Amino acid sequence: MREAQQFSFIEGFDAFGVPDALPQLPLSLHYRSKSVEVAALLDTGASVNVLPYSLGIQLGAVWEEQTTSVILAGNLASVEARGLLVSAQIGDFDPVRLVFAWSLSDDAPLLLGRMNFFLEFDVCFYRSRLLFETRPRV
Asked: Beta 34-42 vs 19-22: how paired, if at all?
């Protein structure tokens, strides 16, 4: 079994100014010949991975070239989204292909959700210790 890598929760403030800590995973996203270093929120309640519009542009994606529509739910239900397949590098793990709902909005955060981040990785949260561990699926 591959070793898990530990990451710290990132401390900050929520939308109401209340101190909070969130499980944000540092990773590198690669699409075509471009890459971007980012931190994505791990969201076990999100059905899909979500990519903000400007981040897709930074990666060199062209909105009109993406033909697969994705329907978002919850507070993102009104946002148009299209499927985008990118390569992701997390720590020293082998790169994986992640599919994102690339939203036509920057109001959508960069989320890693059940489809397909949590199919590729097992994650254990240790909220009281402000840590989480990530391990590629076996």
From this structure: unpaired
